[in-house]
Amino acid sequence: MKEEESIRLDLNPVGSENENCKRKNGSEVFKLFEPRKTLSDDFGFYEKCLLFLTQAGYIPIAAAMLMTAFMEPSPEWCDTIKESDSAWQFNEHREFYSLSVESGFDCQPNSSQTTAMMSSLLMWGALVGSFVCGFLSDKFGRKPVFLGCLSMVTAGHIALSFSNNFSWLTINGVLASMGFFCGGYMVTNFVILTEAFELARSRLLVVSLNGWSISMAATGIIASLTPYWFTYHVIFAVIGSILTIVSYKMCSESCRWLSANGSHQEAKRVAFQITLCNDKREIDEDDIIILKWYEVLGFSAPTHTEEKKTWKTLFKSTRFLKPTAVMCYSFMASSIVSFGFYFSIDILPGNRYYNMALMGILKFILGFTPFFLNRFITKRIIAISSIGVCCLAAVLILPIQYYEIQCLRTVIILLSLVISAGIDPTWKINHLYSAELFPTSVRSMARGVCNAGGRLGSVMAPMIVYLRTLNLLIPNVVFAVLLFVQLVVIVMFLPDDSDKDANEMNDE
Q1: Could you tell me the CA-to-CA distances from 250 to 59, 79, 90, 143, 243 in Å, in that order?
Q2: Which residues pair with 23 in a beta bridge?
Q3: Same-domain status, 441 and 365
């Protein structure tokens, strides 16, 4: 066993049976190295559990990021409050009794500023967390950072459930902290997930199953059923606690990360553990000596490099600079538009909870389109089509708002849903490219930069939405311009599926 690393056996998956097979019990022959070729090969029991846990983890994350969408009561409800201080006890209109209501900041002349400030605190925290946690994930591992972020967001929900004992300054500090770990979670959960798969089509499927949209719908539904800040945070604290414990027990460190950092023995141990969990075949001591970690999993051989990568690598290397810049802007523009419509949900006609739930459901449905359409067209064309439709919808909203056509208010809802949900295929392509365009040694850092672009967009979104107090048209004009520029950037600079630069997943 001490000489395990010195043993070299050239196993070629398309070679002779003598090279790829060994005998067991004198007669039975089985292959040592079975490369993954189909979705069923890629989706074992472990990979399915990892997919479920990482995406279910978005439930407490979305609840934290979107809580301010419910904080400010509608103007009609504020009028009711002025008539009767006890109106909240009856809550006939199911308005959300938020922390800002509890603290007396809502239904005041500056209440919109308070909500915008709290939203910005969350997003600024997420911006910083994306950078920091992306670096920590590449340095210390995917699993500890992923679990640490989820547990700290859960701790934030627990803290806010006792926030009636806190000062307003302390509450805002908790919000900024939760935003930090939300940003970190959105970087690291995706990396540990995509590195568990070999096939590009499998990674596209897990991107299409991204948990944000379903968690967004769950947030709207739970907020409508429990329109009270204490119950809201307790429910998500319980969910987060359960998911943290189960994820700690079930999830393993990324073998790709372990190998890229020189821990080949540990990568092999984890690979055998995953293989046994998937119940692929029996493992004996001879296999441990002969096989490499990627052969155990059925992955293709990585291209290993001893060069240490740093933050400067992303910005000084011509190989990484263009994809980093393109993906960072695409994330930022998509985030501004997405969060802009999330935070504008209170001015849309109808029930804000159901509008948010409907947005989440539509995003989930449309999020599957890249997986199905990629059989016929490239990811780049899918992204172009998605942004093109959203840009057109944003332009169509403007004349309806400008001329204040009351009979077309429902059309504004439909167009808003088209934009908020229709941009989701581009989000999925963005996430996939941000993992596949970069090698393992800088993947989390690159994801951190891209996600920081997204978080910068989410910071800017509430500020842009606040400009509606000056003129209702301003936010949608900004959204339309951003979408048009994003369309141009994707057309000119995003690589196609067949390009070598778009398939870096195995380059370590």
Answers
A1: 18, 51, 45, 11, 10
A2: 29
A3: yes
Handedness of CA 69, 74, 77, 83 (dihedral sign): positive
**What are the structure tokens assigned to 218, written together?**
């769950």
CA gyration radius, the chain: 24
CA-wise closest residue to 450 among 438, 437, 434, 427: 434
State the average pLDDT for the chain: 80
> Residue 55 burial by CB count (10 A; 0-12/13-18/19+): exposed, middle or buried?
buried
In a domain, 3, yes or no: no
pLDDT at 314 over 70: no
pTM of the entire structure? 0.75
The answer to whether residues 404 and 397 touch, using CB atoms and an 8 Å cutoff, is: no
Q: Kindly state whether residue 8 falls inside one of the protein's structural domains.
A: no
Q: Please indicate, yes or no, whether residues 36 and 47 belong to a single structural domain of this protein.
A: no
H/E stretch holding 28:
strand 28-31
**Residues 36 and 125 both lie in one domain:** no
Q: Provide the token pair at 456.
A: 């910068």
pLDDT of residue 187 exceeding 70, the answer is: yes
- Give the residues across from 220 on adjacent strands: none
Q: DSSP letters of 406-459?
A: GGGHHHHHHHHHHHHHHTHHHHHHHHHHHHHSS-HHHHHHHHHHHHHHHHHHHH
The CATH code of the domain that includes 224 is 1.20.1250.20
Does the structure show a pLDDT above 70 at 291? yes
User: 179: pLDDT confidence band, cut at 50, 70 and 90?
Assistant: very high
User: How many domains, in total, are found in the chain?
Assistant: 2
Query: What is the maximal distance between C-alpha atoms in the chain?
Result: 89
Judgement on whether residues 192 and 319 belong to the same structural domain of the protein = yes
Q: Quick one: tokens of 285?
A: 């001591």
216 Cβ contact partners less than 8 Å away, ≥ 6 residues apart: 62, 66, 356, 357, 359, 360, 363
Is the pLDDT assigned to residue 504 strictly greater than 60? no
Token digits for 405? 């056509």
State the Cα–Cα distance between residues 124 and 141, nearest whole angstrom. 24
Let me know whether 54 and 36 are in one domain. no
- Spatial separation of the C-alpha atoms in residues 148 and 235, rounded to whole Å: 20
Domain that holds residue 32: 13-40+256-297
> φ and ψ at 291, to 5 degrees?
-85, 150
Provide the b/e sequence for 246-263 (b: ≥16 CB within 10 Å). Answer: ebeeebbbbbbbbbbbeb
> Rounded CA gap, 94 and 432, in Å?
39
Are both 90 and 108 inside the same structural domain?
yes
